[in-house]
Specification:
The chain has about 350 residues and is α/β, with parallel strands linked by helices. It has 12 helices and 12 strands.
């Protein structure tokens, strides 16, 4: 439209100029009149063109920016943004907030504490947000607070954990991966390498998603798996526990960590003991990707946590705008994983990780 308006202005200037030329005679006064007329025509035409262009720039220039919406969402996660995994998820939340033109608040308990998390959810609902995004690592502990949000008329979307439980609380849709199936794939992948005996390192005991991962891994491997609990907030203690297991287990073939906070102490423990067991993990961190690229780790199961932060914000925005939300599948789970990162793909993923996207 701005091009059309500008064209009209330029045509008007041209017509005025031609009209002026048609009135020229041989006298000096006529020449002066012609010059005045041309200057006037050019000035008016240029002014009109400039005004039209300015108006068009005002319209189209701002169109590149997202129109702000008066929506406020609260994200309540069991993972802190200081965790390398959750910092990427929060990057996704922030990017979506910018892209959608909405306000989003990210909140989490100081540690893996379901009582505190339920209280945060309750406080978020009391603040009357336009939408709520939650993780559901413990459905029994968090279910009543999530149900109360739905009963209060707050649209809720779950992400990351809770794929097997979100529907019973009235949550619209879940964004993440199905954890048992992801663990099963990890087990099958290791079994294909001839692995029969393994450890499963659980850094968040009580998180049902991690329990599902270990169970899926055990079933997919078809061998012997021992679950080893470690403390997420104590990487030095976790390393010592894993090193002790390595020294005490002669027939151990592999270790699967359930996240970077378990994988990094595992890498250090293997180096400390000098073990040659195969390693793999769920989720990504720079140290994990470097280990895969160097051949020190077989693979990582990636669930694309940036998308887990980004998609719920966009889905809630569109839900409020249109009343519709994509369901992903008959189970209403929009899958972001599992995606297998191996030595063949690690280098390209490292680049995305450096940008805070993986």
């Amino acid at each position: 439209m701005w091009k059309f308006n500008r064209l009209l202005a330029l045509l008007a200037a041209l017509i005025l100029a031609l009209s002026a030329c048609s009135s020229v005679d041989d006298s000096d006064d006529a020449a002066d009149t012609e010059a005045d007329t041309e200057e006037s025509a050019d000035g008016e035409g240029e002014e009109a063109a400039d005004d039209t262009e300015a108006d068009a720039d005002a319209e189209t220039g701002d169109s590149a920016a997202v129109s702000a919406r008066d929506y406020r969402f609260v994200v309540v996660s069991h993972g802190q943004s200081s965790d390398p995994f959750w910092s990427v998820a929060q990057n996704g939340v922030n990017a979506a907030a910018t892209d959608m033109g909405v306000t989003v608040e990210y909140q989490a308990p100081g540690t893996f504490d379901m009582v505190e998390m339920s209280q945060i959810i309750d406080a978020a609902v009391a603040s009357q947000p336009d939408g709520l995004i939650v993780t559901i690592p413990d459905p029994d502990a968090l279910g009543p607070s999530i149900q109360a949000a739905v009963d209060a008329g707050v649209p809720v979307i779950s992400m990351n954990s809770g794929a097997d439980a979100f529907q019973e609380f009235g949550v619209l849709v879940h964004v993440g991966q199905t954890e048992y199936e992801a663990g099963f794939i990890a087990g099958q992948t290791m079994a294909a390498e001839g692995i029969g005996n393994a450890l499963c390192i659980n850094q968040e005991v009580g998180n049902s998603a991690l329990d599902d991962r270990c169970q899926g891994f055990t079933d997919g491997l078809g061998g012997s798996v021992e679950v080893v609990p470690v403390e997420l907030a104590d990487p030095t203690g976790a390393q010592a526990t894993i090193a002790g297991k390595l020294g005490a287990t002669d027939d151990l073939d592999a270790i699967l960590a359930l996240g970077p906070t378990g994988a990094i102490p595992t890498l250090l423990a293997v180096q400390e003991v000098g073990s040659d067991v195969a390693l793999a993990t769920f989720d990504l961190a720079p140290e994990v990707l470097e280990a895969i690229d160097a051949g020190d780790m077989l693979f990582a199961i990636d669930q694309a946590q940036f998308l887990q932060g980004y998609l719920p914000v966009t889905l809630l925005t569109q839900y409020l705008d249109t009343g519709a939300v994509p369901l992903g599948s008959v189970d209403r789970v929009i899958l972001t994983g599992p995606q297998l990162v191996t030595a063949d793909t690690a280098a390209s993923v490292i680049e995305a990780s450096a940008q805070g996207l993986r």
